[in-house]
Amino acid sequence: MGNDPLIVFTPSGKRGRFQIGTPILAAARQLGVDLDSVCGGRGICSKCQVTPGYGEFPKHGITSGPGALSEWNAVEERYDAKRGLKAGRRLGCQAKILGDVVIDVPPESQVHKQVVRKEAAVRNIKMDPATRLCFLEVGHPDMHEPTGDLERVRRALHEQWNICDATADITLVSKLQPVLRKGNFQVTAAIHRSHKNTRPQILDIWPGFHEAGLFGLAIDLGSTTIAAHLTDLETGGVIASSGIMNPQIRFGEDLMSRVSYSMMNPGGDSEMTAAAREAINNLTEEMARTSEIDASLIVEMVFVCNPVMHHLLLGIDPTELGQAPFALATSESIAMDARELGLSAVNPRARAYILPCIAGHVGADCAAVALSEEPGKSDELVLIVDVGTNAEILLGDKFRVLACSSPTGPAFEGAQISSGQRAAPGAIEAIRIDPVTKTPRFRVIGSPLWSDEDGFEEATAATGITGICGSGIIEAVAEMRIAGLLDESGLIGSSSQTGTERCFPEGRTSSYLVHDGTRSAGPKITVTQSDIRAIQLAKSALYAGARLLMDERKADKVDRVVLAGAFGAHISPLHAIVLGMIPDVPLSKVTSAGNAAGTGARIALCNVAARREIEQTVGKITKVETAIEPRFQEHFVAANAIPHKTDPFPELAKSIALPSPKFNAGGDGNGDIGGRRRRRRRA
Ligand code: FES
Questions:
Q1: What does the alpha-carbon distance between residue 425 and residue 250 come to, in Å, rounded to a whole number?
Q2: Per DSSP, what are the bridge partners of residue 264?
Q3: Res 120 pLDDT > 50
Q4: Predicted confidence (pLDDT) per residue in 364-374, tens digit
Q5: β-pairing, 427-433 with 391-396?
Q6: For the CA of 75, the nearest atom of ligand 1
Q7: pLDDT at 539
Q8: How does the average pLDDT of the chain come out, rounded?
Q9: Which residue among 173, 526, 668, 676 is least packed, with the fewest CB closer than 10 Å?
Q10: Whole-angstrom Cα distance, residue 549 to residue 629?
């Protein structure tokens, strides 16, 4: 034993002594080294490639020469001739240990490879999908030992892969005999192993060695859009990402109107279920076609969605979600056959997994954000907000995580804003106002140029300047506050108060002119007093939700803020804080997580252990219901001021000095513009 050759694997550093003649793959398995194999060491799959290192390795106490491994053999020869092996590579199942050697396992040969993501701040995904391919040599039928083909496939799975008691549904059994015979009893099976302690399942089977791979779909079923990532289940690479509008929009723009549609129209929920499922099928077919993959190779689907979408996908009437106490039919994760969901564009035995919901207003999409952003592992107290028509908010650290949702309404998406529009070419997405001249300059989606730069007119000739999108209106309101056009209570000053004709009277209030396109038949883009009011309502709801969670944690500040969601990616941290959307933190502590819900779905697709992880995490998250919490209203009113009536913003003050004009000399300054206006109307 002491004289047996020493083998050291890198990058794991695992080491051990093995008898001369032990294949590298066998040594790797004994040491628990992450070395892939689909063919079980038969020299067919080439997944076990390794790079032996020869020379002096003082760190490992090894000197190794080319004689440390057996000679290149016929199997490697054949593989190299057919497919080509990279220089210096060996097949781990063929090369045998003859002397001390250092063996490097390249990333592509690791089963649990890390899918490195471009954004440094975002967690990498460790590959460990629920469904994997296994090459099998199945025993031939024997009259003297009569057994069924399925039983012999099971036995092969047990003996060759240590997979016991695999199930197969009748559609699989019905294709078993021709496949086995076509492959001369050598087949590749796709085996699904759930984390829920159910029996392994044979999802599909192909004759011989199946080279076309396996795929999965991570789907973010949103109320406005359905976004999907077609993912290679072997490498974790995203083959294609695509999205379509959710056709349920025809039943109601927002979630509550869809719940009402279901309440008012018998069978309305089924109509919406059918619409979503059909759209998912169409999206799947389209993505498979454009990516040139056979859709039957899609064997896994993972869904993240808000509670209403969750119920509608599952065919559950969402009526209860429209009224207190907002009871979910189930908040547990769901693992089922995709075909039971009417998802027919994928493999007929594909599995679907739906992440757990956190509460009646905080859905599987928020759970996916928690999976992706991991607030429960943070040393710092982190606030994560996913901004949409409902803001979903998580606050926590390694000690405790809380969640709530807050009804921000659609203003942050440019809806209910006089010049508002969805983020599309032509929409103003960024704006700066000169504090002296009060003149704005802006950028529109579709052009990188600012409006005061040469070439702007030409660059925007095709799209025009059509309105303001969500990020644009946030910047516009914050910039108006910075430039002294807006006071703390949210009132726009008149032209005489602000010294600019851009502030012009409209009824009893003032509006601010951003851009007048009427000379070229374009729209006049303004920010009106009621736009400011709509943004105040939305941002107060968001801030109040965050404050409520901070109260629960007895925290008067947070250490960092993560803005999640596609919209979050476009919000400028400075403007979000000036507006008082989020609590005061150093600007460098505000980051964007992009589509964190989509990332969470991809993690659950690629790593089966992550499913158990998020199920346990969700169980530990404290849910706070904003609708019934009296302090929510107090926080909401205080958050109406810009940035805030009572909470100090010392970090913001380090970056910028906000002017303090007062445009309503007789007012109480509590920012209750709507209330004052109503009183005036009655008078
Ligand atoms: Fe398949 Fe080595 S394990 S080729």
A1: 23
A2: none
A3: no
A4: 999 999 999 99
A5: unpaired
A6: 4
A7: 94
A8: 90
A9: 668
A10: 11
CB 480 within 8 A of CB 531: no
Contact predicate 495/506, CB 8 Å: no
Q: Whose CA is nearest to atom 3 of ligand 1?
A: 41
The identity of residue 637, as a single letter, is V
Residue among 658, 616, 619, 666 at smallest CA distance from 641? 658
Q: Which of 35, 36, 46 to mutate to test the pocket of ligand 1 (most atoms within 8 A of CB)?
A: 46
420 within 8 A of 467, measured Cβ to Cβ? yes
Q: Which two tokens stand for residue 216?
A: 């999965």
More confident residue, 57 or 271: 271
CA–CA gap between residue 562 and residue 545 (Å, rounded): 15
**What is the bridge-based pairing of β-strands 298-305 and 503-506?**
unpaired
pLDDT (tens digit, 9 = 90+) per residue, 176-188? Answer: 999 999 999 999 9
> What are the angstrom distances between the C-alpha of 429 and each of 170, 205, 412, 419, 433?
55, 51, 12, 12, 14
239 Cα to the center of ligand 1, angstroms: 25
Atom number of ligand 1 nearest to Cα 36: 3
Torsion sign (Cα): 282, 285, 291, 296? positive
Judged by DSSP in three states, 42 sits in: coil
Q: Is the CB of 39 under 6 A from ligand 1?
A: yes
Report the alpha-carbon distance of residue 251 to residue 241 in Å, rounded. Answer: 26
pTM value is 0.81
Q: Would the CB of 491 count as within 6 Å of ligand 1? A: no
Q: Is the pLDDT of residue 119 over 80?
A: no
Look up tokens 């025009």; give the residue.
464
Q: List, for residues 248-275, the tens digit of each pLDDT value.
A: 988 877 788 889 999 999 999 999 999 9
**Site of tokens 């199920």:** 615
Q: How far is the CA of 60 from the centre of ligand 1 (A)?
A: 27
Cβ atoms within 10 Å, residue 552? 16
CB 664 within 8 A of CB 491: yes
- In order of 65, 508, 525, 624, the CA distances from 552 in angstroms are 64, 41, 42, 9
Q: Residue 409: CB partners within 8 Å, gap ≥ 6?
A: 389, 415, 416, 534, 537, 538, 541
**Closest residue by Cα to residue 438 from 471, 475, 482:** 482
H-only helix segments in 553-667: 565-568, 573-579, 596-606, 608-620, 630-638, 650-655
Q: Is the CB of 33 under 6 A from ligand 1?
A: no
Q: Which of helix, strand or coil describes residue 264?
A: helix
Nearest by Cα to 613 from 385, 362, 391, 333: 333
